[in-house]
Structures are given as C-alpha cells and as structure tokens.
Specification:
- The chain is an alpha/beta fold.
- The chain folds into 2 domains: about 5-75, Winged helix-like DNA-binding domain superfamily/Winged helix DNA-binding domain (Arc Repressor Mutant, subunit A); about 85-195, NAD(P)-binding Rossmann-like Domain (Rossmann fold, 3-Layer(aba) Sandwich).
- Helices cover about 45% and strands about 20% of the residues.
- It contains 9 helices and 9 strands.
- It has helices at about 10-25, 35-40, 45-55, 65-75, 95-100, 105, 135-145, 160-165, 195-210, and strands spanning about 30, 65, 85-90, 110-115, 125, 130-135, 150, 170-175, 190.
- A 7-stranded mixed sheet has the order 5-6-4-3-7-8-9.
- It is globular and about 60 Å long.
- The termini are far apart.
C-alpha cells in the first residue's frame, strides 16, 4: 500500500516499532503478542494491530508476532533494506555531529560528502567523509548518485541551497535549517527544528508549574 493510504501518525510510529523489535531481537525474544508489545511501547494493543494491518497484519491469533520476521518486514517498509547515498550541507558542529553518527550507516544511509562555504574547511574530512566547497555542490550532484540531502545550515541561504538541490534532482531533504521550505510536491522534506522541540519541552515544564 502506498504512503497516500497510510496516515502520518502510523508512519511516525513505524521507526519506533522497528527500534523496539530490534531490541527484542537482540535480547533473544522470538515472538511477542500485541499486548506485550503494548506494555513496552506505551501504545494500545488495538492501535498496534491497526497500524500493522495497514501493511498486511503479520500476526497470528494465539501466536502473536514473529519478532525477527516483523523486524525485517518493517525494515523493508521503511526502505532500510536498500542503500541510500546522502550528503550533508554544512560542516559546522551540527553537520559534523551528523557525519560522526555511525549508526546511520548500519541503517543503509551512507554519507558520501559534505559541503560548506568556509574556505578553511575545504579539503578536510570528517570521519573520512570529504568536505567540499559549496560552489562544487551542483557539479557533484550531477556526477554522483545521491538520494538524500541533509541541510545543517543557518536560515540564511537555506532556500537557495534547497532550490539547487531540487534542480539537481534531489527528491528527499532532511532539513535542520530553521525555516520552512516551499518546494515542489514531489520533493519530500523532513523538518527537524531543534529549537521548536526544546520550546515544546519548556511548555510542558511551565504547564506543570502552573498546576
């Protein structure tokens, strides 16, 4: 079933299922019921069954779910059985943190290159990943097979960089820039606004104090 028929809430929960199932698999658990998985994930058993039924169900009444099979199937749904070449725009603290996070590679996300406008960063490497001048971005994309671009740059210039990415055929952007991008509908954008997440946490703290 295509993404159009699946709610955003279900898609948002899929990585959680994958993570919990991976932990169960590593612990040697071979099968689990929706009720047992519910207690671990703090999601109702009926919600789990409804979510998984969007993709075929995978469970057997009286048996539950085969942990390894479900883990692999959700991985396929998430596209983790494929390799995704990625670049990072911005080689500052955030960009370097992303490049240094080796767990991406175990999920099939391979960072091939980084780009930055600072001349002193040109020719350096981060965990073996070369850093190029931002002026080389367009030519690099035309010569290499890249599926995902992570934008770890300030708000200024983000729109122009995003437009360059789109013009070079990039269809998936992981946006850490503190701005929303108005791009064609066929370009998938996952926004990660760190300050907004922190503000939501601040709101929850403040709400508790007001009670």
């Amino acid at each position: 079933m295509g993404e159009k028929g699946i709610s955003k809430a279900v898609i948002k929960r899929l990585p959680r299922y994958y993570r919990y199932l991976g932990e169960l698999k590593d612990s040697g658990v071979e099968r689990i019921s929706s009720g047992e998985l519910s207690k671990r994930m703090q999601v109702t058993a009926s919600q789990i069954r409804q979510d998984l039924n969007n993709f075929g169900g995978f469970g057997q009444q009286g048996y539950g779910y085969n942990v390894n099979f479900l883990y692999e199937e959700i991985g396929k749904i998430l596209g983790l059985d494929k390799r995704h070449n990625m670049i990072i725009i911005g080689a500052g603290n955030l960009g370097q943190a992303l490049a240094n996070y080796g767990n991406f590679e175990s999920r099939g996300f391979i960072t091939k290159a980084m780009f930055d406008q600072k001349k002193e960063l040109r020719g350096t490497t981060v965990r073996g990943i070369p850093v190029y001048d931002i002026s080389q971005l367009e030519s690099y994309l035309k010569e290499n097979d890249i599926q995902i671009a992570a934008m770890a740059i300030p708000k200024a210039g983000a729109v122009q960089v995003a437009q360059t990415l789109v013009s070079c055929g990039i269809k998936a952007i992981w946006n850490f820039a503190h701005t929303d991008l108005n791009l064609p509908k066929d370009v998938m954008v996952e926004n990660v606004h760190l300050s907004e997440s922190l503000m939501r946490l601040s709101y929850k703290i403040n709400s508790c104090k007001l009670k």
